[in-house]
Amino acid sequence: MANFQRFLPSFSNLTLNGVVDILVVAVLIYQALGVVRGTRAGHILIGIVIMLALYAVAVWADLEALRTVLSFIVPYLGLAIIVLFQSEIRRTLARLGRKRWFGLAGYRDPESVNEILLAVESLASQKIGALIVLERDIGLRTFIESGVLLEARISRDLLITIFTPGLPLHDGAVIVQKDRITSAACFLPLTTNPALSSQLGTRHRAAIGITEESDCLSIVVSEETGRMSVASFGELAPGLQLDEMRERIERHFGVQRTVQTQIDESPADIPFVDAAAKSGQDKVNLP
Questions:
Q1: Domain that residue 220 falls in
Q2: Which pLDDT band holds residue 191 (cuts at 50, 70, 90)?
């Protein structure tokens, strides 16, 4: 209690600028921990903290030999952090850059989504592996240049043709920008997250890896099971249905659906429809 009372004068001198300063630092620390959480970088960070703690203990306990050894290592920790955490630092800066600070929302043409979902459903039914990446705010030019440029309008038949086994472009990823297929047979970075299941193949790891580097969304179809999955922000949602995939795509890109108003009272000249016929008309079956 006595130790706590010693800090009370400091709290009395706390101003609004100090509160804002503390909150900003807390947010930055939280973002940094969120980037390294569940990755190998987290273990490296723990090792660096342990070395710093040992150096502090050596100075406090007057352990001259240990302090001398660590004094040659600690000054280079700053450079080591930049080298070891270069991908995490790049990912953090990209995360800050892709924040929609002013509430700006991007929209995707619903017709493009329909064509993509139709192609994914057909590929999944035939158990043909596929990987489709939908670009959002952060550009994917580096990965686009690694493949074959197409600059073609999205269509179901074109996507199915690209991923048909035996054709030159079937191996790799397709990158979509707005309503156009920009490139095919692209090489993507693989995730190194140790928390992921070892049963995930290269295609799924590539789908997750590209979403760790940017704010895109990946659609992947397993060639073993035909299962459809969606990856975004470094996380994979496996075994989705078409309506679930559509919902995730629209939520990721901020697409707003127009809600039709229901008429409570029908005019006398409009015939009523029985419930069975009405439910059959409301269903939309994708081919």
A1: 110-253
A2: confident
